[in-house]
Design goal:
- With 341 residues, the chain is an alpha+beta fold.
- The chain folds into 2 domains: 4-86; 106-338, Bira Bifunctional Protein, Domain 2 (BirA Bifunctional Protein, domain 2, 2-Layer Sandwich).
- 38% of the residues lie in helices and 19% in strands.
- It is built from 11 helices and 9 strands.
- It has helices at residues 4-17, 23-34, 39-46, 55-86, 106-119, 134-137, 171-180, 221-236, 289-294, 311-319, 332-335; strands at residues 124-125, 131-133, 164-166, 185-194, 206-216, 242-249, 252-261, 278-287, 303-310.
- Strands 1-4-5-9-8-7-6 form a 7-stranded mixed beta sheet, sandwiched between helices. A two-stranded antiparallel ribbon has the order 2-3.
- A hairpin with a 2-residue loop joins strand 6 and strand 7.
- The longest helix has 32 residues, at 55-86.
- The chain is elongated, with a radius of gyration of 39 Å.
- The N and C termini lie far apart (81 Å).
- Residues 169, 171, 211, 249, 252, 283-285, 306-308 line the site of phenylalanine (PHE).
- Phenylalanine binds at residues 169, 171, 211, 249, 252, 283-285, 306-308.
């Protein structure tokens, strides 16, 4: 049978180690030590077993023990009430740990600019899937299976289904719009496209395009030129000159490529324009009658124009980024340079 002093010692250790997780813990502590049937009470009851010559000392020990339990209880109680009344003991006026602010990706900045320039003249945004079927990426765009123009774009095929490709251009969205929307349509289609190219400074296996499509009665090549001229002046400034060169795309006839006067050297000749004074920025043309027919549209009644540009190309011209790989390397030293835009 342990003596009163030994019992007190054991319980003292318990009190010293006590640290409540919540109110319930603290209340259990009160009941265990200070309650009417608690340890302090029962140890007081043991006093009568202490030999008379040791009573004084034992009484002092018991008092100190009781005080320890009461103080421990009171200090935690005070802390918990403080939490309840004033919230946690944290000074919210102290400055926080700064979180670095992210930046918009340069391609997104430029894509947003392109889209908003066209939105101002009534184009709305349309999107489509990145995994496309042959019909929307090729066949409906006047490129049947044996058409040599398919070789213009090195295609990734989905191995489990030979009818599926990673779309090679956002012209697939043109097809989806003509299939589902009633005329007239005036859309701008931004999105990622894929081509089986070896990755280098000048080519990548994925990049971004913005395609435009306008189909209505009496849409002419003059409308196309004027629309693109408006785009160039908004994007690159009123001094920028444009020129059109005849070209070929299966889904447009006639087709053209558009150059702008070099915005870096002003036409004098530099690396960007390869000393020609001009940089190519997009392909365009009048929607091919076959393509309109593919979607049940009568080309005698409706005409349209389409154009498609590479977002990386426009970004390269605007910010003089000379290596395409920078866009997908996620190097913050590169990305931070666009923080203010
Ligand atoms: N789809 C063409 C390309 O990827 C661009 C284009 C779009 C050309 C619309 C004409 C009309 O190269």
């Amino acid at each position: 049978m342990p003596s009163l002093q030994e019992l007190i010692n054991v319980h003292e250790q318990e009190i010293k180690a006590f640290s409540p997780a919540d109110n319930t813990d603290l209340e259990n502590f009160r009941i265990r030590f200070l309650g009417t049937k608690g340890i302090v009470k029962s140890l007081s009851g043991e006093m009568k077993t202490v030999p008379p010559d040791q009573r004084k000392e034992a009484g002092q020990m018991l008092n100190a023990f009781k005080q320890l339990a009461e103080e421990k209880y009171a200090s935690f109680k005070e802390m918990q009430e403080g939490v309840a009344n004033n919230g946690p003991a944290i000074d919210y006026t102290l400055p926080g740990i700064p979180l670095p602010i992210g930046t918009r990706h340069p391609l997104r900045i430029v894509e947003n600019q392109i889209v908003s320039i066209f939105e101002k003249i009534g184009f709305s945004v349309a999107t489509g899937p990145e995994i496309e079927d042959d019909w929307h990426n090729f066949s409906s765009l006047n490129m049947p299976a044996d058409h040599p123009a398919r070789d213009m774009q090195d295609t990734f095929y989905v191995s489990s289904n030979p009818d599926w490709v990673l779309r090679t251009h956002t012209s697939s969205v043109q097809a989806r719009i003509l299939e589902t929307q009633s005329l007239p349509v005036r859309v701008i289609c931004p999105g990622r496209v894929y081509r089986n190219e070896t990755i280098s400074a000048r080519a990548h296996c994925f990049f971004h395009q913005c395609e435009g499509l306008y189909v209505d009665k009496d849409v002419s090549f003059a409308d196309l030129k004027q629309t693109l001229y408006y785009f160039v002046t908004e994007m690159f400034g009123a001094d920028t000159k444009v020129r059109f060169r005849p070209s070929y795309f299966p889904f447009t006839e006639p087709s053209a490529e558009m150059d702008i006067s070099c915005t870096v050297c002003g036409g004098k000749g530099c690396n960007l324009c390869k000393h020609s004074g001009w940089v190519e920025i997009l392909g365009c043309g009048m929607v091919h009658p076959n393509m309109l027919r593919n979607f049940g549209i009568d080309p005698e009644v409706y005409t349209g124009f389409a154009f498609g540009m590479g977002v990386e190309r426009i970004t390269q011209i605007k910010f003089q980024v000379n290596d395409l790989r920078l866009y997908s390397q996620n190097d913050v030293r590169f990305l931070r340079q666009f923080q203010s835009l």
